Amino acid sequence: MTATLKITTVGNSIGVILPKEVLTRLRVEKGDTVYVTETPRGIEISAFNERFARQMEAGERVMRKHRDVLRKLAE
Questions:
Q1: Number of neighbours of residue 48 by Cβ within 10 angstroms
Q2: pTM
Q3: What domain range is 36 assigned to?
Q4: Contact at 8 Å (CB) between 23 and 17?
C-alpha cells in the first residue's frame, strides 16, 4: 500500500491525517498511541507495543552506558 499524504495544520501543531484504511491496517483508532521508528528505509509507524517500547528503552540505556566498548567492537 502506498499513500501520498499532505502535511497540514492541526490546532497549533503540524501533522498528517491518516486515512481510515491506514488506521485499520495499523489496528489503531482515535486516542491510541503509535510508535515511530527510524529505519534504513525511512520512518516506520506501527501500533504502540508497551513490551517493545520497554525493550527499546533498555537497549538504548545499554548502548549509552557502553558506548566506548561498542565503538571498539565496531572497528
A1: 14
A2: 0.57
A3: 7-74
A4: no
Residue 10, C-alpha cell as written in the block? 492541526
User: Which H/E stretch holds residue 38?
Assistant: strand 34-39
C-alpha cell recorded at residue 7: 502535511
- By the 8 A CB rule, do 50 and 58 touch? no
Query: What is the total count of domains within the chain?
Result: 1
29 in a structural domain: yes
Domain assignment present for residue 17? The answer is yes
Closest CA to 37 of 49, 25, 22: 49
pLDDT digits (tens, 9 = 90+) for 1-47: 788 899 999 999 999 999 999 999 999 999 999 988 899 999 999 88
Q: Alpha-carbon distance 65 to 59, whole Å?
A: 10
- Spatial contact of 70 and 59, defined as CB atoms under 8 Å apart: no
